[in-house]
């Protein structure tokens, strides 16, 4: 299942907020336990309401934690390229699956488990070949790597994708907070 970035954020932080509010409500209710309740004649409707009040807070906390965890594990980013009215279009989605269910692009391989980052998968569902080009800024080393081509109905993984499409051209220079003297950006284009 692929989620949009906004839906993932809403589920993750909304679930955390629901759980936190439910736990705060439980703590508040436990402080009030020492007081005697007002005497009332209970009806079926009142019993149902009392049962809901009693179990809603613990259920909400469990549900909130489950929502957070479910959205948290959907952390593998996919950039899906499809055919649009004016050429290919790309859209970012998130999933828990660490391998797409399409063939790997020629000349690339699946990421190893030893890598310390989650890959960004570029899945080409369009009818055109797309490419990812590494842009180097600064530094004396010039890698001069050829762009990686991704044919239709295949996928390839990258550390990140910074720019998407022929209109989102990488800038001539970038500013970095670290002082290595060189930086790299990945550009998905067609």
Describe this structure in words.
- The chain has 190 residues and is of the alpha/beta class.
- It is built from two helices and nine strands.
- It has a five-stranded mixed β-sheet, with no helix packed on it. A four-stranded mixed β-sheet has the order 6-5-9-8, with no helix packed on it.
- The chain is elongated.
Comma- or semicolon-separated keywords:
190 residues, alpha/beta, five-stranded mixed β-sheet, four-stranded mixed β-sheet, 9 strands, 29% helix
Summarize the structure.
This protein has 190 residues and is α/β, with parallel strands linked by helices. The chain has helices at residues 5-31, 44-72; strands at 76-84, 87-95, 103-104, 120-124, 130-138, 148-150, 154-158, 163-164, 182-189.
Structural class, judged by helices and strands? alpha/beta
> Order of helices and strands, N to C?
HHEEEEEEEEE
Broad shape = elongated
Q: Mean pLDDT across all residues, rounded?
A: 83
Q: How would a crystallographer describe the biggest sheet?
A: 5 strands, mixed
Determine Rg (CA atoms, Å).
Answer: 25 Å
Task: State the low-pLDDT regions, or none.
Answer: none
Query: What's the assembly state of these chains?
Result: single chain
């Amino acid at each position: 299942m692929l989620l949009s970035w906004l839906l993932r954020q809403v589920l993750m932080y909304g679930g955390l907020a629901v759980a936190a509010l439910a736990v705060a409500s439980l703590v508040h209710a436990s402080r009030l336990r020492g007081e005697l309740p007002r005497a009332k004649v209970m009806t079926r409707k009142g019993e149902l309401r009392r049962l809901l009040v009693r179990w809603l807070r613990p259920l909400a906390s469990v549900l909130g934690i489950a929502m957070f965890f479910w959205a948290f594990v959907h952390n593998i980013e996919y950039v899906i390229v499809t055919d649009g009215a004016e050429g290919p279009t790309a859209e970012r989605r998130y999933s828990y699956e660490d391998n797409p269910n399409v063939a790997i692009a020629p000349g690339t391989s699946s990421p190893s488990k030893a890598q310390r980052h989650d890959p960004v998968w570029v899945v080409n569902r369009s009818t055109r070949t797309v490419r990812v080009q590494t842009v180097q800024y600064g530094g004396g080393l010039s890698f001069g790597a050829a762009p990686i081509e991704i044919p239709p109905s295949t996928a390839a993984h990258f550390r990140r994708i910074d720019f998407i499409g022929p209109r989102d051209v990488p800038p001539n220079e970038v500013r970095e907070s670290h002082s290595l003297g060189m930086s790299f950006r990945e550009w998905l284009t067609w």
